[in-house]
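Q: What does the assembly look like in three dimensions?
Context provided by user:
Components: three
Sequences:
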Amino acid sequence: MPELPEVETVRRGLSELIIGKVVKAEAHDTAKGFPNTLDDVSRFLLGATITDVRRRAKVLMIDLSTEYSLIIHLKMTGQLVFVGETRFGAGHPNDSLVNDLPDKSTRVTLTFTDGAKLFFNDQRKFGWMRLMPTIEIPNIDFMQKVGPEPLSENFTAKEFMQRFARRGRTNIKAALLDQSVVAGIGNIYADESLWGAKIHPKRLVNTITEQEFELLFHEMRAVMNLAVEKGGSSNHTYVNAEGKKGSYMDFARVFRREGLVCPRCGTTIEKLRVAGRGTHICPFCQQV
DNA sequence: CACTTGACCTGTCCGC
DNA sequence: TGCGGACAGGTCAAGT
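A: Here is the predicted structure of the complete assembly.
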């Protein structure tokens, strides 16, 4: 899915586009994608004004004037695309992305009183959207166990390292992907961060030194900040709230660059499998 | 508990 | 061109 930078990019876009709008209609396909009843929808969604758009880890929250929220996980291929009254013109690079909605991947459509629409699309159907009381969001399992926000100002290298103590006997990549250790890191930014810190993804957590953790902390934050600045990464299906792709992949140093050269030492980048995920390394910079 | 693996889905790409 | 298999940005529920 979208990882933290992609979800944050969507959040920022939606904040500009939908706060203050009033929900007029809702349509969805299956109970799996949107489990709420029609009664919930009519009481807490229809007629509600959007008051805020928030993010925690990779989860988005759209707060409503009814004190309910739409809570959304995009998983691997989810998109939240806003289409206002002014659509992109024919021939515009994004024309095909937004002028053809809804399409077969559309799971939920919200229509606002001014005619604008918000589409929740999800090709693989892993993602979900549901309506719940805003005050209950912190009580759901995921929120209870999710780790700290990696880009928060008071998050320190020391705390970062301490979070890994529990996962000492697994490899560092699996631990980085564990949302209960640190929130928001996914496959792209795990690989990019480990390359930055010159740590092999198969290294066991309990063999990593304090200095290495400190470097990894700074590299991870630098990578995530750059990715947010670039509007995230678009390998396949990710687009922001306006249907546009992110440009971080233009800056990626190892992810999906197998066969190309390491920008630091010129060694050919390799792809392997770690923690069940495709993993990219420089075999010279990142030794086991 | 911590750790690993497969399941959830659809689409695409690659090799035969 | 068709077909099978591997794989794709993420979590979960099961196993050990």
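Follow-up: The longest strand of chain A covers residues 50-56.
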